[in-house]
Amino acid sequence: MLSLRQRALVGGLASGALSVIVGTLAVLSYIDSRVSNRIDSALRDRHTQLVVGLSVTTQNPEALRDLMFDPSYSAPYSGRYWQVTSSDGQIFTSTSLFDETIAEPPASPQTVTLWNTPGPEDEALRSAYQKITYEDGTVWGVSVAENQTLLINERLSAQRNLLPVFGLVGLIGVASSLLLMSIIMGPLRKLRTDVTHRWDSDDDLKPTDYPNEVSPLVEDLNQLLRRNRDIVSGSRRHAADLAHALKTPTAILRNELQSMSESGIETNIAQEALDRVDAQLGRSLARLRAMNTAELSHSRTDISHSVDRLTRLFSTIAKRDNKTLEVKRDPDLWVRMDTQDVEEVLGNLLDNAVKWSRSTVRFTAMRQQGCIEICIEDNGPGIPKEAQREALRSGGRLDTSVRGSGLGLAIAVDLLAAYGAHLELGTSDSLGGLKCRVAIPTNIATALM
Amino acid sequence: MRILLAEDEPHLCDQVKKLLNAEGRVVDIANNGTDAQYLGTTEPYDMIILDLGLPERDGISVLREWRNAGIKTPVLILTARDGWSERVDGLDAGADDYMTKPFHLPELAARVRAILRRQSGQLNPVIEMGNVMLDTRNGRVTVDDVPVDLTAQEIAVLTYLAHNAGRMIPRTELSEHIYEYDGDRDSNTIAVFINRLRKKLGPDLITTVRGRGYMIDPG
User: Fold this and answer.
1) What pLDDT, in 10s, does the model give residues A54-81?
2) Which of A123, A239, A407, B2 yields a CA-CA distance of 20 to 30 A from A54?
3) Which residues cross the membrane (chain A) (predicted)?
């Protein structure tokens, strides 16, 4: 579909071209008609002069040549001619016609008839003709003619002179259309900028900042954005309520089974079934969260703030286990990602790293070209290359001897994918254990395309 | 040791209470955020187990209010909210530990012991008082390595004194920490429990500070 700017350009060009063509035709037609009228009027005058001249020389038409004293009638093929034809077919002409004659209209009009006819040497002549009966009873066809070539040339010359002027007028018309469109589009451009900035501030757009025609749209947009935000937060709240509603009963069941087991009752099958319920619950809630995530993908988060919060927690956990968490980060690491999702991803990765490391976990968060790169390395056993894919799969768990749902890495992958970010597993060069590399694009719109 | 359990699910309350009672702890239950906030503010608990999804008032706001009021009672958050943001929020609000549901009762018991030990500066789960040993993990008491049978309330009195060894404990404080909120707090019964403990564990373990209270020598 054409953009508004393209529409303005096409519309401007079309209206400009139409204006120029119509204007040119109108002006040229006006010039034509003015020149034709002038020639016709002059022809009538000369015809009258010839009729009067012939009235005194009907018995001696040859004398007309002397009577019609205009020098143009004397020069051969001068473009200005007269001719009189008697009723018996004798033709007397101006010297300028030399040995040629002027055609006469097929009818014999009693009034002056103006018409176009070819002349000597294929000249385009404009001729005035009338059949006149004089007082002495003689009947004469009286013609005067004038070459129109001059007129045609004049018209062509006028066209040549006027066309560039009209072209310029057309261009001015197109430019004006574009300027007008640009002015009209101003509020829409502002709306787009304001909507983008709105994600950062969470403030509503101000309808009073826009023209009357746009402000209802701004109101609607505000409502739509509010509704969107409410749906997403409501959905998350629903997921949290669901988690609470289901996890508490499963905790009760688990505790009852524990008591029964301590009393010597076999509960392994029931416990395994409950484990499956817990795992499925965790997976479904994580997926629900990741599905809602895309709706929040415009909210901005300073990762450095989340990093500080999480490393404060995990430093304490690591210290309790006689381990060290080394943290190195750039300041102001802004990405378009929901804070809770950032913390869920980093929390899961740090939890794994602290759990599996022998003594050291290293966390780095750096600004790179087009993305924020976060690396979490440890000196634990790592994951063999062939098993890394399984570790990233939803529900995949490599070592069942360490407690956990096995969802941590898979949840991180799902959440990152919703933002066009990704997680890679590898081996740490410096520490020898697992290296998790997360790359979060700084321009989310590009990443999601 | 007296513990406030702020949890709205009655079956889970029963399970946790039974578990903690078995270790000689006294447990009060608050089923909603308002009661939890009131009890945590007015009663001298040794620790609080707090669910975040309480009716009437959210657990985090209750916890913030306690901390703002200067109440330093250790708090263990026990919740279905397992996101890392919520964990950090909970710990930043002043919680001492965070457990997510579903959980294993033995793990909860271990976390409760760890918090109570940290609170009293005891690093070892087995508290040694001369020839008397108290294993806080199961409430077992031995004298010269010989097991001694104690009632739940005797264990409660001994545990509180042992966790506060070296400090003189007034009778009223002792009764506040071994009886439930609705329990009959006759301070004369304290003297009965002390006498029984002396008979079972030896006359020199608990010192009476006349007119003031009781004390166990830190050894």
Assistant:
1) 988 878 888 888 888 888 898 888 889 9
2) A123
3) 12-31, 162-185
Whether B2-120 shares its CATH topology with B126-216 is answered no
Query: What's the topology of domain B2-120?
Result: Rossmann fold (3.40.50)
Residue A310 at interface with chain B, using a CB cutoff of 8 Å? yes
Mutation for testing the A interface, residue in B12, B88, B108 having most A CBs under 10 Å: B88
pTM (2 d.p.): 0.63
Residue A138, classed as helix, strand or coil, is: coil
- pLDDT tens-digit profile of B40-81? 999 999 999 999 989 999 999 999 999 999 999 999 999 888
Architecture of domain B126-216: Orthogonal Bundle (1.10)
Predicted complex ipTM: 0.71
Fold of the A4-153 domain: Beta-Lactamase (3.30.450)
CB A59 within 8 A of CB A140: no
B104 and A258 within 8 Å at the Cβ level: the answer is yes
Alpha helix positions (H), A296-430:
303-320, 339-356, 385-392, 408-418
Enumerate the domain spans of chain A.
4-153, 202-296, 297-449
Is the Cβ of A280 closer than 8 Å to some Cβ of chain B? no
Pairing status of strand B206-209 against strand B213-216: antiparallel
- A 349-378 → B contacts, CB under 8 A: 351
Query: With pLDDT > 90 as the criterion, what percentage of chain B qualifies?
Result: 45
Domain ranges in chain B are 2-120, 126-216
Superfamily of domain A297-449: Histidine kinase-like ATPase, C-terminal domain (3.30.565.10)
Q: Which residue of B has its CA nearest to A237?
A: B81
- Of all residues in chain B, the one with the smallest CA distance to A310 is B88
- Out of A102-111, A166-175, A403-412, which region has the weakest mean confidence (pLDDT)? A403-412
Residue of B15, B79, B100, B101 to mutate when probing chain A, most A C-beta within 10 A: B101
